[in-house]
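Tokens in:
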């Protein structure tokens, strides 16, 4: 059920409008993604990895092969995501985690890690993530050296009304 909801959420994004809306508020979405990722590592007592390479489902024990997003998402979504392998990877990790919640339902709260980045796309914003940086296009830049230490102590930001 959560996988179907996640697929529907991604396929509902207007992929043609991504990057057309610039808002300073989008900085909060990048911040909250990194904070939530740091809280995951803290809660699971795992050594932090760069967010661009953090496959939460795998870290929680998923033994399946990494998911191919083209099997789940629209051709428009796949065409957009194929332009940036790191962004594509983030959405594949999200879908893989949604799929893995069928095996271990107690991990569904970790889907919230990815919500800020999905919301960013839903709003028409854009991001680029690489091993050493998260950039909210034309709005903010988050260097990822020592990201865990910086964000594990941060207070949450309410992004529900963005």
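Residues out:
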């Amino acid at each position: 059920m959560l996988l179907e909801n996640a697929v529907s959420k991604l396929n509902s994004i207007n992929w043609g409008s991504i990057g057309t809306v610039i808002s300073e508020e989008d900085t909060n979405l990048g911040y909250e993604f990194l904070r939530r990722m740091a809280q995951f590592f803290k809660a699971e007592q795992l050594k932090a990895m760069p967010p661009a390479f953090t496959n939460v489902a795998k870290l929680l024990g998923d033994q399946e092969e990494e998911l191919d997003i083209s099997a789940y998402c629209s051709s428009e979504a796949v065409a957009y995501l194929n332009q940036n392998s790191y962004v594509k990877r983030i959405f594949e990790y999200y879908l893989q985690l949604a799929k893995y919640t069928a095996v271990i339902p107690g991990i569904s709260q970790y889907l919230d890690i990815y919500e800020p980045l999905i919301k960013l796309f839903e709003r028409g914003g854009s991001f680029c993530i690489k091993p050493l940086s998260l950039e909210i296009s034309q709005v903010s830049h988050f260097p990822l050296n020592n990201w865990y230490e910086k964000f594990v102590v941060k207070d949450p930001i309410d992004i529900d009304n963005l």
